[in-house]
Amino acid sequence: MKKIMLGIIGTGRIGKLHVDNIIRYIPQLQVKAVADPQLDECWAKSKDINYQYRDYNEMMCNEAIEAVLICTPSSLHSQQIIAAARAKKHVFCEKPIATDIEQIKAALHEVRKAGIKLQIGFNRRFDPNFSRIKQIINNSGIGTPHLLRITSRDPKIPPADYLKTSGGMFIDMTIHDFDMARFLMDSEIDEIYASTGVLINPVFSECDDIDTAVISLKFANGSLGVIDNSRQAVYGYDQRVEVFGSHGAVHADNNTPTNTILSTSDGIISEKPLYFFLERYSQSFVNELTAFYQCIVNDETPPVTGEDGLRSVIVSQAAEKSRRENRPIKIDYAC
Q: Is residue 110 very low, low, confident or very high in pLDDT (cuts 50, 70, 90)?
């Protein structure tokens, strides 16, 4: 079994999650280096990580590192992709590549020029439930898809400091749903209309953001979709998908700690959804990095490409334009 030597850029919550998953579940990947301006050296030492850097550029000079995982704030992603491409290192990058289209295009140009693999971290594609829905659709299990419904609601609002730099709900949260919509329906989103509000907390208005949205989609193949989002579902992380087609429908409900249901004369009680994304999508994080490894060793196209990353940002920006102008927006992917 060929092993790939990895470097991790950014050791916050998601970076540490990837390190732990690799150590526990993906022996064919080996974390040899980490880079973070605020590096926790005790943590890195406890994980037996050989090379530790404050500056990610120093990591790029390490010839032992074959690929990097970019787990830093979004504003740094494009420049770090470019640095990795110029150093001939394959890249797994958390979403989004950038919030500026020209920055994304510049990064993708360097990726193509270097001939490296670039996979974007839309982990929900690798969730066992949603992967099964995709498989059923591909096998014509519901005929021709007509309608898509995605429900995606967070359990609690982010801190105000985070909201000020998040880029807004669509680029920060709904971008996962836009990617899932493209993935499941196998068609580009052609038109979008976002009906939105601030119904939870006035801090969103203060940040020129929203906390609630219903988004209507028209796909290039004529099918339709609806996404509903909320930043605060008091009962937990609400993640459901349904696709309705000419021969039937397929849906995935929330994951819960157990599937136990208590039925008494007082009522029927089941458990709340798993609390947040680290719990709900734990297996998908493992699956996406396993797929990243496979695309490198088998010289395959990554299952989530840089172009996928670009198109989801374009859709996110169209949604933002729709909510500000209160009208449907035709999406131009050639922008």
A: very high
